[in-house]
Write a structure and sequence with these properties.
alpha/beta, seven-stranded mixed β-sheet, five-stranded antiparallel β-sheet, 22 strands
Length: about 950
């Protein structure tokens, strides 16, 4: 038997580790980043504040030095300031109103970096500039006193002023004023050292990293404790049970476990011990019998008797073994049910999100183990002969309908046509074990649905023979699924076996369903068989003998009420339509059967047509709104209107269409259920008009396709898109996405990259090659959109990417961007991809447009050179021209041209003759013609857009 690890892709331990570590790491990174960045800004602001506290007093004090044109006093002032803050200040310089250097605190090799490059009138008091590891703060020096201040300064310090007339040197003839109207004398620039601030920033980053690392280590510690006490014991139990199934009866579980897990461990060990004892006892009996046979060869009659006795004892030992396994399997369910029950109770209590995920994972794992034990229990009971069949009267059609109703949602979720077809001559009141009949139908129909991806599943019952007290039925389950190879069909009804070992990995299951079904049918006195073709489907049939019941179980309906009444049936699905038609005709109704929407519209438009009943299927309509409009039209033409539905959400049907019909019926529907709806139609009720819904957000009127193989991710993106756009279509496989793209146009497609089968890149290429969405923007949804991978994503034909995890803001931004994005629909994206062109020039539109214009301008000359080199068979000229074109194509978003140039250049360098490369050269010339046409369209449209914006 396969190990339990093959039943699921990821183990319980992996899930626990991922769900425990991911939130901690994410929160730690976010908090660490926040506090680190906040610390960076605080240090930067502190440094600026320190510089301003130094430069503002210096600017005021330097006014008289500039007015008096006294450099010596001003230099002493600057030097003193620098000396008092030597660790912070590298240099101080004062520039006059002509932006000439007036004085500095000390010599500096390059004062140009401190000079203000713009007009002095625009200099603000809080002007600063960052330069490498330095910070430059500039402060304007304004005149607060004018010429009076100069004279006053000259009187107070006559020995300090220069001999020249101060006013004539310090104050220019043409005064300059700043924005506040103050007279500018110059400005002061201070060069601050940022090394200490940078050092503190690095220390803050390292501290944040260390704290996050410690948090992750603590989380790992507690997570491994949880794995040790819960996950490891369950894994060990699965391993030991697998060994016992393989016959290794010495396998045991060790260690002390918690709660019900310890009871489960004791039960498994007890079962293994008992099985080992019975096995040893049986072996001893066989050995004893063999020994006695060899000792008494001369006594043939005695030997035969003893041999028979030994054989009987061996058979009894085998019988005891099977009985014990059946009993112990039942006993194992008791503690396991406790685990599941308490897990479900714990789910109802207040829990953190991660704790809730852990409990749900444990509950699912325990439920899977319980399902395996249940199958083993049924199998053991059948082998031991302990399963007793009941003989109770039951209604056959109602039992079938109840059974199919339970498994119908799985068929509806896959879009399968599920049909119940019971012949009219099959009796309704029978006697037997209804529960086991239910189990047989569930196993066979459930398997058919499981192994069918598209098409139909039909369950048929045909009357084979009937006597006064007994009836023999032939039941068939026909599907259009994957089928079974002839070489694998012989293993189908073996215990713990399946047609292919890959089946258990792909679809799951223990392989006990069919063998239990076969033994149940055999025990009922019937037989089972099948016919199957690989990739065409299967037909499982079984003969079911039942007793006729003398009691009336089902409801007796007055079928004569329906005779002669008219009914309109619309059902585009062939099998369902044919089955319903046979039923309605057998009830002597006047039937009008339609299979197309156009036929239905025409029939309802005829004013002469009126029907007593109408049965309309929801299939064939593009939306629930279209269906609702037609139902409103049909309601005026019929007495009782029934809607068959399984193609829209149930909530949508109830909210939008319930008032348009007399009754909603989920398919498939049984004979008696349909007859009841016709004979006893529901009373007419007052139609309550829908209240207008509050519009909280104006959704975009567009249809979007979302593709993701992960159900959780697909549900998330579907939910987010439903809030942003009007129509959302989902697909869980690349194959389904390609199929949808071929039959329907979408305004935008979100495509997951990593998917089984056809991945996102391959699906995009198929959509670009042949579909109704060759030019639809396709956005890659991936967690691996790194810088080096963006180009490969865009090269595949995708137009952009949306990184995971997806949030509402980024999703809306992408949609808003592509709503107003220019769409080029007259050429293939492999010929010219504007998004790839932008990526290759770092999203600079002007540069990308210029590169494209240069390429278009050079194309005529390039084409002429290639044609001339081909005509002259000039290898060197051809290599030079192709190499030059290859270099130009690297920055213009022309994937096909780039690939062709690369291939041609490689072949020419290997001295491949031009004649051998003729197909590739002609293909390149043809591609250059396409590039020229596409590029002219892009240049024309984008140039017009740019001019309009300007």
């Amino acid at each position: 038997m396969k190990s339990a690890n093959n039943l699921t892709k990821y183990s319980l331990r992996s899930w626990v580790l991922v769900l425990a570590l991911a939130p901690t790491v994410l929160v730690g990174i976010l908090l660490g980043s926040y506090f680190t960045i906040n610390r960076f800004y605080e240090l930067e602001e502190t440094l600026i504040a320190q510089g301003r506290s130094i430069v503002e007093p210096l600017a005021i004090a330097s006014e008289f030095g500039l007015l008096a044109d006294n450099r010596e006093v001003t230099k002493r002032l600057l030097s003193a300031s620098q000396l008092s803050n030597s660790a912070l200040i590298r240099s101080i310089a004062i520039f006059d109103v002509q932006n000439h250097l007036f004085v500095t605190s000390h010599y500096h090799k390059d004062f140009e970096s401190m000079r203000y490059k713009q007009a002095l009138e625009s200099l603000n008091p809080d002007e600063f500039e960052t330069l490498d590891d330095s910070l430059i703060i500039r402060m304007p020096i304004v005149s607060n006193t004018g010429k009076t201040g100069i004279n006053l300064f000259a009187q107070l310090a006559p020995g300090i002023t220069n001999t020249a007339t101060p006013s004539s040197q310090a104050i220019p003839d043409s005064s300059m004023e700043n924005k506040e109207g103050q007279q500018l004398l110059g400005y002061i620039a201070i060069l601050l050292n940022k090394e200490n601030a940078l050092l503190e920033q690095h220390r803050a980053a390292i501290a944040a990293f260390v704290i996050v690392l410690i948090g992750v280590q603590f989380n790992l510690f507690f997570t491994f404790r949880l794995v040790k006490h819960v996950n490891f014991p369950i894994t060990e139990m699965v391993r030991v049970v697998a060994k016992i199934r393989e016959g290794k009866l010495d396998a045991r579980l060790d260690g002390n476990l918690i709660g019900e897990l310890d009871l489960l461990k004791r039960g498994i060990n007890a079962m293994a011990g008992s099985l080992s004892e019975y096995h040893d006892e049986m072996q001893q009996n066989i050995d004893q019998a063999t020994f006695e046979l060899r000792e008494t060869l001369e006594q043939i009659e005695i030997q035969n008797v003893e041999l028979d006795l030994a054989k009987k004892r061996a058979q009894e030992a085998s019988q005891i073994k099977s009985e014990f396994l059946a009993n112990m399997s039942h006993e194992l369910r008791t503690p396991l049910n406790g685990v599941i029950g308490f897990a479900r109770q714990l789910i109802k209590t207040p829990l953190h999100a991660s704790q809730l995920d852990y409990i749900k994972t444990i509950e699912r794992s325990a439920s899977n183990l319980l399902g395996i034990i249940n199958d083993i229990l049924d199998f053991s009971k059948l082998e031991a002969g302990k399963m007793e069949l009941e003989k109770m009267p039951f209604s056959l059609r109602e039992t079938v309908a109840e059974t199919i109703t339970i498994i119908a949602p799985s068929a509806q979720s896959k879009g399968l046509e599920l049909v119940i077809d019971i012949d009219d001559n099959v009796p309704e009141n029978v006697s037997g074990d209804a529960m086991r009949v239910n189990q047989i139908i569930t196993n066979l129909v459930g398997n058919a649905i499981k192994f069918t991806d598209s098409g139909s599943v039909v369950f048929k019952i045909i009357l084979v023979a009937e006597t006064d007290d007994r009836v023999t039925l032939r039941c068939e389950v026909i599907d259009t699924g994957i089928g079974i190879n002839e070489s694998q069909q012989e293993y189908l009804f073996q215990a713990f076996g399946q047609a292919d070992s890959s089946i258990s990995r792909r679809f799951g299951g223990t392989g006990l369903g069919l063998v239990i079904t076969k033994r149940l049918i055999n025990k009922m006195g019937g037989q089972i068989g099948f016919t199957s073709s690989n990739e065409k489907g299967s037909n499982f049939w079984f003969i079911l003998p039942l007793n006729l019941s003398q009691f009336q179980i089902g409801e007796v309906l007055p079928m004569d009420v329906l005779q002669g009444k008219s009914i309109l049936l619309y059902e585009p699905r062939t099998l369902t339509r044919e089955t319903l038609s046979r039923r309605l005709t057998s009830w002597q109704l006047s039937l009008t059967s339609l299979s197309k929407v156009a036929e239905l519209i025409g029939t309802l438009a005829n004013s002469n047509n009126h029907y007593d009943y109408a049965i309309i299927s929801c299939h064939g309509f593009d939306s629930a709104q279209d269906l609702g409009l037609l139902l409103q039209q049909a309601r005026a033409k019929v007495g009782s209107l029934i809607l068959l539905h399984d193609c829209f959400e149930h909530e949508t049907m109830v909210s939008q269409l319930r008032n348009s019909v007399d009754n909603l019926v989920i398919t498939p529907i049984s004979d008696y259920a349909l007859a009841r709806q016709l004979i006893y139609p529901p009373a007419k009720t007052l139609i309550i008009p829908e209240l207008p819904k509050e519009q909280s957000y104006q959704r975009q009127s567009m249809t979007v396709l979302a593709v993701d193989d992960n159900p959780a991710n697909l549900m998330l993106i579907d939910t987010l898109l439903q809030e942003v756009v009007t129509n959302v279509v989902t697909a869980n496989r690349g194959e389904a996405a390609v199929e949808l793209a071929q039959g329907q146009h979408f305004d935008l497609i979100f495509m997951d990259i990593q998917m089984p089968g056809i991945d996102g890149l391959a699906a995009t290429k198929l959509i670009r090659q042949e579909s109704m969405n060759r030019n639809t923007p396709i956005i890659a949804v991936t967690a691996h959109a790194l810088a080096e991978e963006k180009e490969s994503i865009l090269n595949s034909g995708m137009d952009g990417y949306l990184p995971k995890p997806i949030d509402e803001k980024s999703l809306k931004a992408v949609i808003e961007r592509w709503i107003s994005k220019p769409k080029f629909t007259h050429f293939d994206l492999q010929t010219l991809n504007w998004e790839l062109c932008l990526t290759q020039v770092n999203q600079k539109i002007d540069l990308a447009l210029e590169m494209l214009k240069m390429l278009v301008k050079s194309l005529p000359e390039t084409i002429a050179q290639i044609e001339q080199a081909f005509a002259d068979q000039d290898q060197d000229k051809m290599l030079y021209t192709v190499h030059k074109l290859h270099g130009a194509s690297l920055y213009c978003g022309v994937p096909n041209t780039q690939k062709l140039c690369h291939a041609l250049e490689s072949s020419l360098k290997k001295q491949t003759s031009i004649l051998d490369l003729e197909p590739e050269i002609l293909e390149l010339l043809d591609e250059l013609t396409k590039v020229e046409s596409a590029a002219n369209q892009v240049i024309t449209q984008l140039s017009a857009d740019i001019n309009h914006d300007q």
